[in-house]
Design a protein that fits this description.
Layout (H helix, E strand, L loop, with lengths): L11 H36 L3 H25 L3 H16 L1 H5 L14 H13 L2 H20 L8 H76 L3 H26 L3 E3 H15 L4 E5 L5 E3 H21 L6 E7 L3 E8 L14 H12 L4 E7 L3 E9 L2
Parallel strand pairs: 2-4
Antiparallel strand pairs: 1-3, 4-5, 5-7, 6-7
């Protein structure tokens, strides 16, 4: 199967994989960085490195490796920190000659910045697209190889320098390949879940169409049968006139049924709730789902799709942000004029006014999606008390 890019509108599995990998990296990278910084201090004292260039690199490394775990464990995202690690590494490599100045290392001693090359290559996959990451993975070992065979410090045999650079490249490349495969598989899961949700909606639509046709068939059947019985038993002029009127009424019902069948697709609240419950349980089997007031009230197909997508996005946000121990529930309520859905959890909660502008899951996939079909969304959330996402459509 070709490893082509999978695009999914539901990103719950991919978000979980990214968060897990980020947390693993946020623990491993600072441990390696600690050795990097300690070696830097030792070489600074031992070889009298240029203080300006040394401290510029050393403090930059210290800052980004402190910034990384804080970002991962507080916001779950560290795009800027990943990129900063790569940039600082290239800066340190570029300025190594200025750090060393007229001093030189002893034979077999590596510059202290060597420890940053491998982990920076791994950071690239977290901060850049795959193509840019591949370029960085090639550039880092080439840059390192150039430094080793140059006259900066003590030059080593080019073959040994090539082996050293190759091992650095292989380490980063293997880690990047591992991360890429995990992301690819997670994206496939997201795509499958999204397809299942769409299939549930289509199934409910088909069910609604069949029910509506059965209702029309029964209506028409009764009208035609009554007309035939009256016509067959007509023996007076008044009875014949009544049969004529009934015939016209039956023909009018047939025309109305034909027009209704050709109109835009709709789905009953009952069928929509069935599809929603199926989609919710597929996304998270432990979520409590309850329905009140299901009926045959017809909802336009685009409205049903908007309600379904908004509900699943709200549930995905809860699964991603509320905490693994949070309890979640989805309440479905139908009325004669509309629908109300509540996605509730007792997790961490948040302040809606402080949601970053780049978080589009809430703004576009929920609020914007419902607004496009004249629906409404209300967010009730406080830190430490959980979150209620209320989705409404229909008459107020």
């Amino acid at each position: 199967m070709p490893l082509k890019r999978v695009r999914a509108s539901r990103t719950l599995a991919l978000a979980r994989v990214n968060l897990m990998l980020g947390r693993v990296y946020s623990i491993a990278a600072p441990i390696i960085a600690f050795q990097l910084l300690v070696n830097g201090l030792n070489q600074f004292a031992k070889h009298n490195l240029n203080p300006y260039w040394f401290w510029a690199s050393w403090l930059a490394f210290a800052a980004v490796y402190i910034w990384l775990p804080i970002s991962i464990w507080t916001t779950g995202e560290a795009l800027a920190a990943y990129r900063a690690i790569v940039v600082v590494t290239f800066f340190a490599l570029s300025t190594w000659g200025f750090q060393l100045g007229s001093s030189s290392l002893i034979e077999g001693e590596q510059p202290w910045i060597w420890w940053s090359v491998g982990i920076s290559g791994v950071a690239a996959i977290g901060g850049f697209p795959l193509l840019v990451t591949a370029i960085i993975l090639l550039a880092l070992p080439i840059f390192w190889f150039s430094i080793q065979i140059s006259e900066i410090g003590i030059p080593i045999d080019p073959w040994i320098a090539f082996q050293d650079a190759s091992l650095t490249f292989l380490f980063s490349a293997i880690m990047v390949a591992f991360v890429s495969v995990m992301r690819y598989e997670a994206a496939k899961v997201d795509a499958a879940n999204h397809a299942a949700g769409l299939a549930a909606i289509e199934l409910a639509k088909s069910d609604a169409v069949v029910r509506e046709r059965d209702r029309i068939d029964a209506l028409v059947h009764d009208s035609v049968l009554t007309t035939l019985l009256v016509a067959a038993n007509a023996s007076t002029q008044e009875q014949e006139k009544e049969a004529e009127l009934l015939s016209r009424a039956a023909i009018a019902k047939l025309n109305t049924a034909r027009e209704a069948e050709g109109s835009s697709e709709t789905i009953s609240i009952n069928s929509l709730f069935t599809a929603l419950e199926f989609a919710v349980r597929r996304q998270a089997s432990d979520v409590e789902v309850s329905a009140e007031g299901p009926s045959d009230f017809a909802v336009p197909g685009d409205v049903a799709a908007a309600i379904t997508e908004s509900t699943l996005q709200a549930l995905a946000n809860s699964l991603h942000h509320a905490g693994k121990n949070a309890q979640r529930a989805v309440f479905l309520k139908g009325t004669k004029t509309g629908i109300k859905v509540v996605v509730k959890d007792n997790g961490k909660g948040f302040r809606p006014s402080r949601v970053p502008k780049n978080r589009l899951g809430l703004k576009l996939s929920i609020i914007g999606r419902m607004k496009s079909v004249d629906g409404r969304v209300f967010i009730d959330s406080k830190i430490g008390t959980g979150t209620n996402v209320i989705i409404e459509w229909g008459a107020k």
